[in-house]
Specification:
The protein is mainly α. Helix content is 71%, strand content 0%.
Length: 337
């Protein structure tokens, strides 16, 4: 009969000190055992974080050096002077021209899906089809007009907003300016802007972009401990991006129906057809829900755009030695131009 269990002799041979199975491996006399550091992934992550922090600190120092040189060379620019408004105009040009050009591929897909909701199922599918049929340049279709058009628009928007905000506040007086500041922000962002038939999209969009941003940023600084002046460049630009992103979501919502209608009019308006008649015909075709087609994509796009625009704009203002937008207002004492 076959033995199913090992005999006593077998167990002794295997587990005895003389057994080759229980003998430890010999080590060199001069060698030392090096233990592997625990949690290597954490160690690498901490090193990377430390290096990133050092690079960030160096970048901030270089930024401050360059800013100091520019301010020293150009002289101290007084708030609300002609040079101040000119600088804000250039800051707006940078903020809008760069950001809108960067998201040209997203805007291209958004417009095409608004015209034909069945054209693409998603952004990645759309970019893949455009790449195969039109090449890489097709994805950036219209980047040139986008850059120049939005650069001019950004210059007018930001420069005009800063100027009219100061003008209306000055006309209203200090007490009324504080009491009705949101109304002044809305007026400053609306009364200089608009060309038919884009009023329905641009006026609500621009009013929400500036007025809601100022309100959100003021609320953030009221919530945060300390004063606005207690926070450094990085923190203030982070507040600007966050406030801009939230304002951008509101911008997208209030202006989206008009944005869809403008896209439809550009694609489907018949020769000689009156504007009102074309709108009525398109609305019959798409209905109320059709006016909200593509809203999630536009929220992401406009939120990111607006956040980056305010971050770039306020970074430029800091670079020029000006306070960032929103929060407690600096003293409105106009200097000589």
């Amino acid at each position: 009969m076959t033995i199913l269990y090992p005999t006593q002799r077998t167990l002794f041979d295997v587990f005895s000190p003389q057994s080759p199975f229980s003998k430890p491996k010999a080590q060199n006399a001069g060698s030392s055992t090096t233990r592997r550091a625990p949690f290597m992934a954490w160690s690498v992550a901490e090193d990377a974080k430390s290096k990133a922090g050092q690079l960030s600190d160096e970048a901030v120092k270089e930024y401050e050096k360059a800013s100091a040189k520019v301010q020293q060379k150009g002289g101290q620019l007084e708030l609300y002077s002609a040079k101040y408004f000119a600088a804000c105009t250039f800051g707006g040009l940078l903020a809008c021209g760069v950001t809108h050009t960067a998201v040209t591929p997203l805007d291209l897909v958004k417009c095409r899906r608004q015209v034909d909701s069945k054209l693409y199922k998603g952004n990645f599918e759309a970019w893949g089809k455009i790449m195969r049929s039109e090449g890489f340049r097709g994805i950036f279709t219209g980047w040139g007009p986008t850059f120049w058009g939005y650069s001019v628009q950004g210059a007018l928007k930001y420069g005009g907003y800063e100027y009219f905000k100061y003008l209306y506040a000055d006309l209203a007086g200090e007490e009324n300016a504080k009491k009705y500041k949101t109304s002044l922000y809305l007026a400053a962002s609306a009364l200089y802007k608009g060309l038919y038939p884009l009023w329905g999209r641009q006026i609500p969009y621009t009013m929400m972009k500036f007025a809601s941003f100022e309100t959100i940023v003021a609320a953030m600084y009221n919530y945060l401990p300390g004063e606005k002046s207690d926070y450094g460049t990085g923190a203030q630009t982070a507040v600007a991006f966050t406030g801009g992103y939230l304002a951008g979501i509101l911008c997208a919502i209030v202006s989206h129906p008009a944005d869809v209608m403008v896209s439809k009019l550009n694609a489907n308006r018949q020769p000689g057809e009156a504007f009102g008649a074309a709108m009525g015909r398109i609305y019959k075709d798409i209905g109320f829900m059709g006016l909200w087609n593509g809203l999630p994509v536009r929220i992401v796009m406009i939120g990111t755009l607006t956040g980056l625009q305010w971050m770039i704009y306020d970074s430029f203002k800091i670079y020029m030695g000006f306070p960032t937008t929103g929060g407690p207002e600096p003293e409105k004492k106009k200097a000589e131009a």
